[in-house]
């Protein structure tokens, strides 16, 4: 379970944020999409969106709730062995819920174009230009081996933007410390029905529906 930042840095899985989730006994719920299933066509088909949201994301939510329940029971019993054994399921299903909840808001039928204001200035400062950032993030995302995510994240320690790639459902902040701004899901369930095995075409198309207002809001909140 490795998570890469840029080309070189690797880090071990961090479970702290997921362990934080289990402190709450509230059940997690599937968030509504802020648009219709067909609203992102022609870039992402309604069939993909419906399955992705109502089946895949819903399964992460259900399994996260089941895992948390087992974790609470193990906590109550002082059963550390079971707590440890549940951490992979917590990471996978908790990460799946966290990642997809961000992803839906990163997209919009009115998206595309370029960011404005300070976010654009910081992208230009950290990557040279908006186009270079897109190229770097696209390349890192397409290169994910198997299932995973490409990310634009904010490094709070030095105030800079970073590109990262995470395997499976490893959540960006829990595994790298970067605050997630924009995620691109490259699990096959996100594109295969429409793009088949041509992941680069899906990644190229998704820039047409990126919700830069949402990413700008996330950037402002991350800086605080
Ligand atoms: Fe997904």
From TrEMBL:
Signal peptide: none annotated. Keywords: Manganese, Metal-binding, Mitochondrion, Nitration, Oxidoreductase. One of its GO terms (molecular function) is superoxide dismutase activity. Its EC number is 1.15.1.1. The keyword Cytoplasm does not apply. Mn(2+) binds at residues 52, 100, 185, 189. It catalyses: 2 superoxide + 2 H(+) = H2O2 + O2. It holds the Pfam family Sod_Fe_C. Its cofactor is Mn(2+). InterPro entries: Fe/Mn_Superoxide_Dismutase, Mn/Fe_SOD, Mn/Fe_SOD_BS, Mn/Fe_SOD_C, Mn/Fe_SOD_N, Mn/Fe_SOD_N_sf, SOD_C_sf. One of its GO terms (cellular component) is mitochondrial matrix. Destroys superoxide anion radicals which are normally produced within the cells and which are toxic to biological systems. Destroys radicals which are normally produced within the cells and which are toxic to biological systems. Belongs to the iron/manganese superoxide dismutase family. This is Superoxide dismutase.
């Amino acid at each position: 379970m490795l998570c890469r930042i840029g080309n070189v840095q690797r880090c071990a899985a961090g479970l702290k944020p997921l362990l934080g989730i289990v402190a709450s006994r509230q059940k997690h719920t599937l968030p509504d999409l802020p648009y219709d299933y067909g609203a992102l066509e022609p870039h992402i088909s309604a069939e993909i969106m419906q399955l992705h949201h109502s089946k895949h994301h819903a399964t992460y939510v259900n399994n996260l709730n089941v895992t948390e329940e087992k974790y609470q029971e193990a906590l109550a019993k002082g059963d550390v062995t079971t707590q440890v054994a549940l951490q992979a399921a917590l990471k996978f299903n908790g990460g799946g819920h966290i990642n997809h909840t961000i992803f839906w808001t990163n997209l919009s039928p009115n998206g595309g174009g370029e960011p404005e204001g300070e976010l654009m200035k910081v992208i230009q400062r950290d990557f040279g230009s908006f186009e270079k950032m897109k190229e770097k993030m696209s390349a890192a995302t397409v290169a994910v081996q198997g299932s995973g995510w490409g990310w634009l994240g904010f490094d709070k320690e030095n105030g800079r933007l970073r590109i990262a790639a995470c395997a499976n459902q490893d959540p960006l902040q829990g595994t790298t410390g970067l605050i997630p701004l924009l995620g691109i899901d490259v699990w096959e369930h996100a594109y295969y029905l429409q793009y088949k095995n041509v992941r680069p075409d899906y990644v190229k198309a998704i820039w047409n529906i990126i919700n830069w207002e949402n990413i700008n809001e996330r950037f402002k909140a991350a800086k605080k």
